[in-house]
Write a structure and sequence with these properties.
Elements lengths: L9 H10 L1 E4 L5 H15 L13 E4 L5 H7 L2 H11 L13 E4 L17 E2 L6 E3 L8 E6 L11 E3 L7 H4 L7 E2 H4 L11 E3 L7 E4 L5 E2 L11 E2 L2 E2 L17 H9 L7
Antiparallel strand pairs: 1-10, 2-3, 4-5, 5-8, 6-10, 6-12, 6-13, 7-9, 7-11
Pfam family, one: PhyH
InterPro entries: Phytyl_CoA_dOase-like (IPR008775)
GO molecular function, one term: 2-oxoglutarate-dependent dioxygenase activity
Length: about 260
C-alpha cells in the first residue's frame, strides 16, 4: 500500500482523542462536491431552483455508489487521515455511501433531533442497531459536507468529549454489545458536555469517533444542507485490551481513555 503524507499533527490526533472528532479541511474538491449535490438532487426529484418543491424538513437518500461519492471518499488526504486515526491496512476503502440526510429550510421542525450514537450491526429479533465496546463494524463515523454549512443550515450538533462517557456504559455488555434502545436511555450522563457544530465548506470532512454523541437540528437558513454520514469499516476488529506492547490506534486510545486505562498495553 502506498505511503501517504500525514495530514494531522500529533497534537491534532491528541485533540481527536480528547474531543471525539476532527475536521479535515479541503478533503475533496468543490467540483466533486457539486457533482455529489447534483446527483442527490436527481435522486430526490426536487427542483433546486424552486423552494416550493421542498415540502419536507429532511429527505433521505439511502445509498449510492456513483462515481463522485466514491471519489470524494477516497482522496489521498482522506486515506492519509484514515491511516493516522485507524492505522495503515486497518480500514476498508469505501465503495458505497449512505445515508444522505438532506435538510431543508421548512416551517415544520424535523422529528429526528434526539441525541444518540450510531449503531453498527444488528442482533436477532431486534429492529434497533447495536454496538459494543470494540465498535464492531465501525472504525469511524465520517461526515462529508457536500454544501457549505453555517450555524443556520441545520449543522449536526456534537457533545464534545462524550465518546469518553460511552465506554463504561458498554463494557458490562461484553462482546455481544447493547441495543441502541437501551444505550440511548443512559446518555443523560453526557448532558453537561459542551456542544460543537459540524460547520464548514463544501469539501470538508469530519472524522468522528464512533461513540461520540450527536444530534440533528432544525434548518434555519436558506439553502439546503447536503451531507453524507457513512461508517468507515475496520479491517479486522478494534483492540481494547491487547496486552503488553500493543500499539493502539487513536480510536482505541480514546476508548481506553474512557475506561481509565493508559495508552500502553
Amino acid at each position: 500500500m502506498e505511503t501517504l503524507e500525514p495530514v494531522f499533527t500529533d497534537e491534532q490526533i491528541d485533540q481527536f482523542i480528547e474531543n471525539g472528532f476532527i475536521r479535515l479541511d479541503h478533503a475533496f474538491s468543490k467540483e466533486t462536491a457539486q457533482a455529489c449535490r447534483a446527483a442527490l438532487w436527481r435522486e430526490t426529484g426536487l427542483d433546486p431552483d424552486d423552494p416550493t418543491t421542498w415540502t419536507e424538513p429532511v429527505v433521505r437518500v439511502w445509498e449510492s455508489s456513483e462515481e463522485p461519492f466514491i471519489e470524494a471518499a477516497n482522496t489521498p488526504r482522506l486515506r492519509a487521515a484514515y491511516d493516522q486515526l485507524v492505522g495503515r491496512d486497518r480500514w476498508v476503502p469505501m465503495r458505497t455511501m449512505g445515508t444522505f440526510p438532506i435538510r431543508f429550510p421548512h416551517k415544520n421542525p424535523p422529528q429526528d433531533v434526539a441525541w444518540h450514537v450510531d449503531g453498527s450491526y444488528q442482533s436477532d429479533n431486534d429492529p434497533f442497531f447495536w454496538l459494543n465496546l470494540r465498535s464492531r463494524d465501525r472504525a469511524l463515523l465520517v461526515l462529508f459536507l457536500y454544501s457549505d454549512v453555517t450555524e443556520d443550515d441545520g449543522p449536526t450538533r456534537v457533545r464534545v468529549g462524550s465518546h469518553l462517557d460511552v465506554p463504561p456504559l458498554l463494557e458490562p455488555a461484553g462482546e455481544a454489545g447493547m441495543s441502541l434502545r437501551t444505550l440511548i436511555d443512559q446518555l443523560s450522563c453526557t448532558e453537561g458536555r459542551p456542544e460543537a457544530l459540524v460547520t464548514g465548506e463544501a469539501g470538508d470532512v469530519y472524522l468522528v469517533h464512533p461513540f461520540t454523541v450527536h444530534s440533528a437540528q432544525e434548518h434555519r437558513g436558506k439553502e439546503p444542507r447536503f451531507l453524507a454520514q457513512p461508517q468507515l469499516f475496520p479491517q479486522g476488529t478494534l483492540v481494547v485490551d491487547g496486552g503488553p506492547g500493543t500499539e493502539y490506534n487513536a480510536v482505541e486510545r480514546a476508548i481506553r481513555k474512557g475506561l481509565g486505562r493508559s495508552d500502553q498495553g
